[in-house]
Amino acid sequence: MNDIFANIYLWFEGFYGSSLSEYLWGYNCATEDYSNPQIFKQVGLMMSGISLGIALVYYYVINHPEFAQFRHWFIMLIITAVINLFAGWGWVYSGFINGEIGDCVMYAREASGSIISQLIYASDCWMFGVANAIVSIGFFCIFSLIVKWKSSNAGHSPF
Amino acid sequence: MNKVFKTLIIACAGMTILLSGCKGPGNSGPGNSSPVNIVEPAPEAIETIEAIEAINVYIENSGSMDGYVNGVTEFEQTIYSYLTDIDISNITDNLNLFYINSKIIPFGSNVRDFIENLEPATFKQRGGNRGTSDIANVIDSVLSNTKKNTVSILITDGIFSPGKNIDADQYLVSQKTTIRGNVVKYLEHNANAAIIVYRLSSNFNGIYYNKIDARSNINEQRPYYIWVIGDAGQLNELRRKAPDSKFIGGGVKNVFSVSAGNRTVNYAVKQGSGEFKLDRQDPKKTILKWKKDSKGKTSGMAKFSVNANLSGFLLDNDCLLDESSYRLNDNDFDLNITPATGNQSGYTHSINLSTAILKKNFAVSVKLLIKIPQWIEDVNDDDGSEAVADKTYGIKYQIQGVYEAFTYKNDCYTEIKINIK
């Protein structure tokens, strides 16, 4: 249960790379175990909250008969995805630029200590944002199906 | 409807900006854009070593040692310097000096007096049976007096003297067996014991006694040995305060060291050292989804490295970096050892493994072996008829006796095991 978000994000590991994945799992270079906070879980909870929040806004705050077609629901879906793209990117990128990503997952080094190659780039943070956006699309669909029933005007949306 | 849209767009833009800079709990850290690991370092592992209560120094004063103390010699200068370094290091409050042959003769604690009195006449005056060198007996006497928190230093020419009418070959084997038995008994009460043997060289001007006690006058360089016996942690500390590099004169020519084996050391698979995932339940010792490298110099090979702390064995770096010091449980693996760098866990060496044959559901084992270095064989004189430059009659039997005692129950210092799933 603890790893449910991580296992979902891992379907898209090819987008953002295995090195960033280790950081997001919470790998601690100093203790060589996964004792750092698991960022997959943190981002997953945030993504779920955003997706649920936007679904609730659509069905119970906006809840307008002129905004209850499939295309309107789709607009909300896109908004969810865009917000989660930036949210996912922002969360990981702040760790990237603040030097919070452990050296052992950030760089491959020679035995002498000199850097062979950098393993995580800013573009990987963007790709994690993309992965977060894709996952949020799925969550938004699921939340829509769960919460829509009591909506007086939009309950038939998306279908 | 337009109002709804406008409200929505403004709300979304605001949320996007807000969440882009959002950080969760536990993600905060100091700002740092340079490529350095700033995750809070693991606390330094501090090994608790008890203080050395006494260091007892024994100089063998059998007749064969006279040539080392005839006049002012490198032997005297080197011993004086070494003992002074120990004395001023404050590693112990009790530095006790003795002569030793068939019995132990105390001298006191004044290093300068001790050295100034190192002359053949004084050696003779101190007494004991100077006519033979029963090395096994000397070592046994030293071991018996090496109590808990005591370090013993024995200075000897290391030459066996079986005497006339004794089968020399049988004598050497017998001495080896006796040494082995005595060291095993010592280890039973001192599980963390270690022995270091330094080989040095000095000018020797005096009578050389061969294996049948025939005499010859020589004036040439001859080897001598300093044995250091005690707890491994305390010997490590002594070596740190009076390092090998500080021996004056010609310095230490060779070192043999051995400590109790079958110990656990701190080790972990090195993140990013190959194409694999770490098992989150056991990230230090288990790898999953191991694959061959697809690019670069190691394309087609599957590899990983293990960082380990091998500092506790009194072995020098040449030995630890030598692949022949290790034994793998699978010949399909290639092994290479390099110094460990850039880690905060006190690792000293990286054990680099690679193979062209991928294995799964397998445990690869690397054992650091207890070995006798080649130099022992190189400096051993098997004949004993005359003084051979740089060689010592029967020295390998003494070392073999010690080696067999330490490997009585197992032949490796430690084993590193990595599971491949």
Account of the 3D structure:
The complex is a heterodimer of chains A (159) and B (421). Chain A has one domain. Helix content of chain A is 64%, strand content 4%. Chain A is built from 7 helices and 2 strands, in the order H-H-H-H-H-H-E-E-H. Chain A has helices spanning 4-10, 13-16, 18-25, 39-62, 70-97, 103-106, 122-147; strands at residues 107-109, 115-118. A two-stranded antiparallel ribbon of chain A has the order 1-2. In chain A, strand 1 and strand 2 (115-118) form a beta hairpin. The relative contact order of chain A is 0.20. Chain B folds into 2 domains: 54-261 and 373-410, no CATH class; 267-369, no CATH class. Chain B has 10 helices and 18 strands. Chain B has helices at residues 2-20, 74-88, 111-116, 120-126, 135-144, 168-189, 232-241, 317-320, 374-378, 395-406, and strands spanning 54-60, 95-100, 104-108, 150-156, 193-209, 215-231, 254-259, 267-269, 275-278, 286-291, 302-308, 326-328, 334-339, 349-355, 362-369, 380-381, 392-393, 412-420. A 7-stranded mixed beta sheet of chain B has the order 3-2-1-4-6-5-7, with helices on both faces. In chain B, a hairpin with a 3-residue loop joins strand 2 (95-100) and strand 3 (104-108). Chain B is elongated and about 90 Å long. Chain B starts with a helix and ends with a strand. The model of chain B is unreliable at 21-46 (pLDDT under 50). Classes of the chains: A mainly alpha (159), B alpha+beta (421). Chains A and B meet through helix 3, helix 4, helix 5, helix 6 and strand 1 of A and helix 1 of B.
